[in-house]
């Protein structure tokens, strides 16, 4: 059953040869995509939650942790048809800035398109954006540039084509239902497509992710080819989660890297939170035996043998003991 979606898109501003585009989603049914391809590349996305300069209120995100996981999984499913894994960084950055949150005009007025550039540039100056220039910065705001304030059942966005920066508004009611979450996933996936260099299809109402008023989230092979031909700055080679050595395999060598990095550095970091801890160990354990090029539709990996599992548990215990000893030594030095 085709989904229904009202996307009103405008290309309203050209600045340094980069276009800004808008998207509004108000209704939609099941997500429709093409078959997933083997995952060969990854795109990292940093969520930045804006607020008034006072710190409150904050812009809506993807709802609860469960709702966020559902939306992000749907976005990942949409882009799996291109062999691209969309990885949202687990941490959320906060940006208390009234101009970023809602702009300077009354909510009944249309916010200037150029405010997207203001949001990105001021956040960069404030040190809020990701320190990794390959990571897409996605700002959640109360009023998206190019629009006036929308209601709780709407979602819209604006993005730079082939450049960094997305602003999104998510109505508070949408994450509460699967239909609403699918609406959000489609709009956000569309905006990511613009950062990856895709423009709108020439005809609206097509069964295509990049179509204005599109009826599906499908991509054509030519669109997928275009992304890779442009060699967009945000595409990174995908490595299996837990592959700390970068050799394309998750095995005992990666366990050694994690063990030596535990509590010390991020060499054994698999979830992007900037450290090597127990969660990264569990990610390694879950993906043990996998290699690069895993199909996004079937990421089933061999269960660790009992011997490997025992070795992993012992490694975890040893690492924890080492951290405890280090903390005890530090406590003695402070006495």
TrEMBL record:
It holds the Pfam family Reprolysin_3. It comes from the Bacteria. One of its GO terms (molecular function) is metallopeptidase activity. This is Peptidase M10 metallopeptidase domain-containing protein. It comes from Bythopirellula polymerisocia. NCBIfam families: PEP_CTERM (TIGR02595).
